[in-house]
Amino acid sequence: MTLFAAVPPRAAIAQSQSQSDAAADEPSDATTGEALPPQPAQLTVPKRPGVRHPLEPGDTSSPRATLNTFLDSMSRGGKAMRLAQARFRREEGFFPSDEVRAQAQEADALFTRALETLDVSKVPPAARESVAVEAMLKLKEVLDRVERPPIDEVPDAAEMEATGMTKWRLPYTSIVITQVVDGPRAGAWLFSPETVAEVPKYYQIIRDRPYIHTGTEGLYESYASTPGRLLPPKWLLWVRDLPQWMRLQVRNLRLWQWFGIAAVLSLGILVPYAVGRWHRRTARAIPEPRRSWRRLLVPIVALLSIYAMGDLITQQLNVTGAVINVIVALLVAAATVSLAFLGYLLPNAVAESIVASPKIDRQSLDANMVRMVMRIIGALLVLVMLFVGADALGIPLVTLLAGLGVGGFAVALAARPTLENLIGGIILFADRPVRVGDFCSFGTMMGTIESIGMRSTQIRAIDRTVISVPNAQFVDMQLVNWSRVDRMLVENIVRLRYDTTPEQVRFILARLREMVLAHPKLADDAGHVRLLSLGDTSIDVRLRAYALTADWNEFFAIKEDVLLRVIEIVEQSGTGLALPAQTLYLSRDDVIDAERAEAAQSQVQAWREEGELPFPEMAPARRAALRDSLTYPPPGSPDAPPPRRESGGS
Questions:
Q1: Which domains occur in the chain, in start order?
Q2: Does the global pTM surpass 0.70?
């Protein structure tokens, strides 16, 4: 694109410079301190009244108003800036006086008003400030080197409305002022985004041409070649004393600026790197959650370093041009990554602080669920930071979201088993069928839950091996949690010989029921002792009772005691337990113990005559008398209670 169509060359305007101290109050060059030459009156731009208010907006109601606002603000802002610089150099001390600050604030307000005439909506937010300032200064340099029509010949609002045009082009150039269609500045006339983007190229074409309109000569060169922004800090004025070769211009920057950029970036990268190495070397000796919180130092130090690098490069070294755009983009990208890393680590540190509570087992499902929720929050924070950083860099969010959608679908397909296990972990957390430390049966195996993670559950089997079961499979299994029982079932089939008489069977049933009622470790309200069936090889009696314990070791001890008492009752009846084999009887066998069999029959006959036959149920008085009358543990065991002493009368 050609900026100039038919601009005739002009002879260079003679410029004489004086270094007299008497001219110190006049505008001077910020690099050399020399007074600028007297400036001729600006004929094409009429003077506007002084700034009435620092927040007074510029007039952008028409191409004429916009061009006038820009030229007038830049002319008066440049003069105010140079006056502030000259006074600051004459003052003692490192910091400016109130008068210098006021002069600098006036210059800043005028430059801000000039910036308002540029449409920088297409510039990425991260580089918007540096691009706008550079475009403003270079546009002024371009406009001062080309012929401009008298300000009265630039169309005003009425002329543009009458013609229906929405843009105006400076004659013989590609500089366009266009009307904003939408957005917060709809209706305003601004230098178009295309003009803002092309200004650096226009400046490179016109930079060696002489000034046609004077008053702010060398404004951009003075700004770009000195440290600081409006007021170069006095602690950086040693730059003026550098050797001439350090002032050589390389790619629009002075050599000392390149060295400064290299030093700042090296130091800014070295500091967080050193902090990261120190943390990795000493973190193992620090327990959680302190280790998780100290891990935050790395992204925090990185963010501070990035901020310091940005301030030193943009504010102190005052780097301009395409270099500052690249550096700003890199710093914004690094800050985005650091913020995302911080957003990921912070919820993890909070989770470890919660899990550190003595009420929560670090390997329990509750602890893993807290970690998972915080990791999800961290992932969301990472996405938010990445989107904010992408927006600051000017990356189209619609394209980014579309790419994430396609990529997310592919990742979801590849990670389906992981997602299933994750959902299984959530189900385990919601239903809580088992917890860490519970003894349970799952499938055909049994074991104690050692840990419940978001992917799998670790179980210590009875043979002391560790079984890892994916959560998606574990939740689909039939889980029996033995640790939550309030009672444990004692059940056994007592198989009697077929030569046992009905009276002996009644005796055994009665004694077994009495034993269940009398046993202090058996519940008497839910069990039963019944003649179950006449089996192929035995008369089957089922004993079912509930042991009043939830401890497995105690349960087996109680069951052992019950079975021993069953054997004794069977022996007392005079019969015996059936063998697990079929017997072919050719004649009637002799009774094992005729004397005890007769005693059992006599006892049953006595119950019948006294009306106390315990069938089908035992009398309530008898039940009450028998309850907890047995001694458990049995006499002779270390835990057996002392024998009761009979109280005799006096």
A1: 21-241 (no CATH), 257-414 (no CATH), 428-483 (2.30.30.60), 488-583+592-626 (3.30.70.100)
A2: no
